[in-house]
Specification:
Layout: E1 8-10, E2 35-43, E3 47-52, E4 60-64, E5 68-73, E6 76-77, E7 83-84, E8 98-103, H1 107-110, E9 112-118, E10 124-131, E11 138-149, E12 161-163, E13 169-172, E14 195-199, E15 214-218, E16 225-228, E17 235-239, E18 245-251, E19 260-261, E20 267-268, E21 271-272, E22 289-292, E23 300-305, E24 318-322, E25 327-334, E26 337-345, E27 350-355, E28 361-365, E29 369-376
Parallel strand pairs: 15-19
Antiparallel strand pairs: 1-22, 2-29, 3-4, 4-5, 5-6, 5-7, 8-9, 9-10, 10-11, 12-13, 13-14, 14-15, 16-17, 17-18, 18-22, 20-21, 23-24, 24-25, 25-26, 27-28, 28-29
Length: 379
């Protein structure tokens, strides 16, 4: 399972048996379709997610790691918080704190939303809340903890939440932390760590019963950000690597599949990790894209497939970046194949991308605030 030691490579997406149609064959590096940059919009305190409610309000919700969610509307950040859960957190630094937010697909009607955070015991917790009738803020008394996962370290907490085309809440969990998957949780079906889970939030048990999520896939190290293509429903997962390789995985028609294994900690990216040579890779999903630690970066941040209208040349392209260097890449399908291109470098610690109601893309800069994506033709 070795590949040439180039800094960035695009790989075939099929390795071994799997119960899914094969992904498009790999292609070589393409000429850039577009070069990307950002324009600063507002300052924010350690933003880690930018989420739209899809309620017609055009609001973008800025998730701050310290435990506060604020509303960006018409280019201005509202002073009053939409949500404040600082009292729930055990810590809000490093990889802990308020990490994820997702709005129910019918939020406008029912006011339901969901958060992921590290609780006072520093475990990974998931909860439901409800907004007040005019949807201007969250009712703090509505908090309902759905479940928590015992965690043994402060890092690799996952924390991203997203509703899939099936209407279920998809939850990506990290392997629990440390280095090198020390508890071997990612491949352990008895553990919820290192997995992609699903919850049918419209069929939740009545309190005080806790939710038992469905395990959809395993073998993830820290799927910090993933997204569903709003047009095709394909699932794109950016999984943070260990010491050498950052990876992107794509699953076409994810609702037709279950039981996939993304490889960690047998593999890191498309490379053997345990053992370093001769690992058993049959049946594992192979990433479609990876880049090596060094000049290109050290920690991947996944984005979205662009479906907006401002930049026609970007339509259909999946955007990703690196937290450490601010480098950007795009991946798109051309003639049935996936091809990639370098798309610039921005002065930002890219903690997350955001997709607004119109499909336009934004960038959360962990060290500064919120930026709007801009694009221009490459030279």
């Amino acid at each position: 399972m070795r590949v040439p030691s180039t800094i960035v490579v695009l790989l075939t997406a099929c390795c071994g048996a799997r119960a899914a149609p094969p992904l498009p064959a790999a292609a070589m590096l393409a000429a850039p379709w577009v070069q990307l940059d950002v324009e600063p919009i507002i300052a924010a305190d350690g933003p880690v997610a930018l989420v739209a409610a899809h309620d017609g309000s055009k609001r973008l919700f800025v998730v701050e790691q310290r435990g506060v969610v604020r509303v960006l509307s018409d280019g201005k950040l509202q002073e009053a918080p939409f949500l404040d859960v600082r009292h729930l957190l055990g810590a809000s630094g490093g990889e802990q704190g308020l990490l994820g937010l997702a709005f129910h697909p019918k939020f406008k009607e029912n006011g339901r939303l969901f958060i992921a955070y590290t609780d006072q015991g520093r475990d990974d917790a998931y909860a439901e809340l409800r907004a007040v009738s005019d949807r201007s803020r969250v009712d703090p008394s509505s908090l309902r903890v759905l479940f928590a996962i015992d965690d043994f370290a402060g890092n690799h907490n996952g924390g991203h939440l997203a509703f899939g085309p099936d209407g279920k809440l998809w939850i990506g969990t990290g392997d629990g932390g440390g280095g090198g998957d020390p508890e071997r949780t990612a491949q352990d079906d008895r553990s919820r760590l290192g997995k992609m889970l699903r919850v049918d939030v419209d069929k939740l048990p009545l309190p005080p019963l806790f939710v038992v999520p469905e395990q959809w896939a395993k073998g993830l190290r820290n799927p910090w950000r993933y997204s569903f293509d709003r047009q095709t429903g394909d699932l794109w997962i950016a999984d943070v690597g260990q010491d050498k390789w950052e990876e992107v995985d794509v699953v076409e028609r994810p609702l037709e599949q279950r039981g996939l294994n993304f490889g960690w900690s047998v593999t890191e990216g498309a490379h053997c990790f345990r053992p370093e040579r001769g690992c058993e890779a049959a049946g594992l999903v192979t990433p479609v894209f990876e880049y090596q630690h060094g000049a290109d970066g050290c920690s991947i941040t996944g984005g979205f497939v662009y479906r907006g209208k401002r930049f026609p040349a970007l339509v259909g392209s999946y955007l990703l970046g690196d937290y450490c260097t601010g480098r950007l890449w795009t991946i798109k399908r051309e003639a049935g194949r996936l091809v990639w291109a370098r798309a610039g470098e921005i002065n930002a610690r890219i903690s997350s991308f955001g997709e607004d109601e119109d499909g336009e893309l934004w960038v959360a800069d962990h060290g500064a605030g919120v930026h709007r994506l801009i694009a221009f033709a490459p030279r």
